[in-house]
Structures are given as structure tokens and as C-alpha cells.
Specification:
Helix content is 75%, strand content 0%. With 372 residues, the protein is mainly α.
């Protein structure tokens, strides 16, 4: 049964991806005036246009129409980004699951003989030595792929919606205009908009990630042999509390919010100054916008994901340990951090960073290609 499930998940992702692509194409066609540049990112020029249009004098009927159009654009983009990012997350999770399993084992376990951190090969051997063999590298894949879809979809949906709402507000309140010398530059307005929207999106989405992250990590570390067995035992012994261990939600947010801010700031910056540069030059010259090459989105996404992953690896180590065995640390983030430091010194917080980067760089590269 387990083998059948593993084989069906990629097929399901593919079929749902086709369906999602149809939705995206249809919604793009209906919102063409608002998504010419990029349906996922507000350029600094768009922020200025929104701000200037809101401050310019116009008739009440045209102002009302413009306001309604912006509201519809933000809502439609939010829904479209929810669907696109959900499917992109499921595909990337399925393709790169083994590296996530190795990362979890490295962060949670030590070499029994030497008491040191496990190497990549040793962590892989721990997984494959279980009854399931090589398939143990895909432990927790089902719950991970299914759980990631609503959480990542919610994150990017909220992020897109918040960005389109916050951008004009920040520009009006803090940005420079013709009558004001002081204020944030265009780049400053954009960076603040992206960072704030990313924080809001991941604050909401982090709570929804905790249950499936807890189940996935318990499967990856071998505490349970099947998803059904894990769910049954956890429900019987701790009820809902088993899926939200003490400190589990807090450390999830401590990791996810900085990760989102670093990753999306890097990605949006690369899109503005590299990926979309030719498109902007074409628009300035009055020419038809050139289609962005997918490989550019792939590189931008990979670099952004690598930056975010490396910067937040210490929080990821603490998250893994706290969610797998919360009682050992009394559900306290700082107790877990101090014991991890005592156990292996500062280098202990880099455990699992290599497989995490091997997982996150291509995962984000694939994700943003599917997403865009």
C-alpha cells in the first residue's frame, strides 16, 4: 500500500498541476492590466503609480472604479498565488524528499560510537537500514506533500494580497514624493513592503505547518513506521496536543519568518535587477515585453532559497529537536538551544545544513519556476 501511495503522489501532483495551470492562465487573462509586469511582485514603478493615482485629483466615479479594480486585483492575485504555490510546493517536496529525511536524522541523532554528528552517508544508512530500505528516505512524504500544499498556498496567497495592499500605504506614508525631500527611496519602500508582507504571510502560515511537520519528523526519525500508525498513536495518547507540542509553534515562527523575509527579499531583488531587467528596458522603449527565460527564475529561486536556508539553519536545528522530543526540553526553546550548544558547541547549529541546502536550493529553484 505504501509503495502505491509513493507512486501515485507524483502523478497526482502532475494532474493537479495541469488543472492549476488552467486556472492561472484564465485568471491572468481576466486581470491582464494588473499582471503585465509580474503577478507575483510589485515593481517600484507600480508602487509609485498606485500612490500617485490615489493622490491625483479625479472624479468620484473614476476613483471608485480604480479602488474597486485594485481590490479585485489583490484578491484574484491572492487566490491565484495560493493555487500556484500549493502545487509548486507539492512538486518540489516530492522530488527532494530524501534530502529532507537525511537532514532531520542529522539534526536529531548522534553517532553512537563517537558521539559526534552523523555524516551524510551515516544519516542515509540510518534511514535505509530500517525495514523499508531505500523507501525510508521518503518517510513522511505523503503527509509532507499534502500538508505543504495548504500551508505554502496560504503563505503565498496572504503574502501576495498583503503586498498589494501594503505597498501603496507605505509609499503614501513613508515614501518620497514631489513635495517631500525626506522619505524612503523606491528601493526602501519596496524592501519594507516585501519584508512586512512576508512576515505577515508566514506568521499566519506557520501555525498551520506545525502538525504535519511534527508527524513528518517523527516518521523520518523512525519513531513510527507508517503515517496511519503515527496519527492513531498520537491521537490516542495526547490528542490534539500531540500535534502542537510545547514550544513547537514558537520555534516554527522563529525559523519561518526570518526565512521568508531573507528568501523573498533576495528573490524580489534578483527579479528586479536581473530577471526582469530586459523586460523593463523593452517597456521603456515602447517595445513588446520579452518573455522571461525560466532558467533565470530557477537561478533566482535557488540563490534566494540557499540564502534563507543557511541564515536560519540554527533555528531549524532547534525546531527539529523540539518538535520531535518536546518533553526532553520542557517545551522551552531556550533550554533546547542551550543544551544543543553544550552538546556540540556552535557547530551543532550547523548540523544538517549541507542536506538542507541540497534540498532547499533545488526545491526553491523548482518552486519558483512552477510558481512563475
Amino acid at each position: 500500500m505504501r509503495n502505491i501511495v509513493y507512486r501515485l503522489i507524483p502523478l497526482l501532483c502532475y494532474l493537479l498541476g495541469i488543472f492549476t495551470n488552467v486556472i492561472v492562465v484564465e485568471s491572468k487573462a481576466s486581470t491582464a492590466p494588473f499582471s503585465r509586469r509580474s503577478s507575483k511582485s510589485l515593481s517600484s514603478q507600480q508602487l509609485i503609480v498606485d500612490a500617485s493615482s490615489s493622490s491625483s485629483s479625479s472624479s468620484s466615479s473614476s476613483s471608485s472604479l480604480s479602488s474597486t479594480s485594485r481590490k479585485q486585483s489583490a484578491t484574484i492575485n491572492g487566490i491565484r498565488n495560493f493555487a500556484s504555490s500549493a502545487m509548486a510546493a507539492a512538486c518540489s517536496k516530492t522530488l527532494l524528499a530524501p534530502f529532507d529525511t537525511i537532514k532531520t536524522i542529522q539534526q536529531q541523532s548522534l553517532n553512537a560510537a563517537s558521539g559526534k554528528a552523523l555524516t551524510l552517508k551515516q544519516a542515509a544508512n540510518v534511514a535505509t537500514s530500517r525495514p523499508g530500505g531505500v523507501l525510508e528516505l521518503y518517510a513522511g512524504l505523503g503527509v509532507s506533500a499534502i500538508g505543504a500544499m495548504p500551508s505554502v498556498g496560504l503563505y503565498f496567497g496572504v503574502y501576495s494580497y498583503a503586498k498589494e495592499k501594503i505597498g501603496p500605504f507605505v509609499q503614501n506614508r513613508l515614501g518620497k514624493d514631489e513635495d517631500c525631500v525626506d522619505g524612503l527611496s523606491k528601493a526602501g519602500v519596496r524592501s519594507l513592503t516585501v519584508a512586512t508582507s512576508a512576515a505577515i504571510g508566514n506568521t499566519i502560515a506557520s501555525f498551520s505547518r506545525v502538525p504535519y511537520e511534527v508527524v513528518k519528523q517523527k516518521l523520518q526519525t523512525g519513531e513510527y513506521s507508517s503515517t496511519f500508525g503515527a496519527l492513531k498513536h498520537m491521537c490516542a495518547n495526547g490528542g490534539l496536543r500531540s500535534f502542537f507540542p510545547m514550544g513547537g509553534v514558537a520555534i516554527q515562527m522563529y525559523r519561518d519568518i526570518p526565512y521568508a523575509i531573507v528568501t523573498l527579499l533576495t528573490y524580489e531583488c534578483l527579479r528586479d535587477h536581473w530577471v526582469n531587467k530586459n523586460e523593463e528596458l523593452s517597456l521603456k522603449d515602447g517595445q513588446e515585453a520579452k518573455k522571461v527565460a525560466p532558467w533565470k527564475d530557477m537561478i533566482a529561486g535557488g540563490v534566494a532559497g540557499g540564502m534563507g536556508s543557511f541564515m536560519t539553519n540554527p533555528m531549524d536545528v532547534i525546531k527539529t529537536r523540539l518538535q520531535v522530543n518536546s518533553e526532553l526540553y520542557s517545551g522551552n526553546v531556550w533550554v533546547c538551544a542551550s543544551r544543543t550548544l553544550e552538546e556540540g558547541g556552535p557547530s551543532a547549529f550547523l548540523r544538517g545544513s549541507v542536506p538542507r541546502l541540497i534540498h532547499k536550493v533545488p526545491a526553491n529553484a523548482c518552486f519558483f519556476v512552477f510558481y512563475e
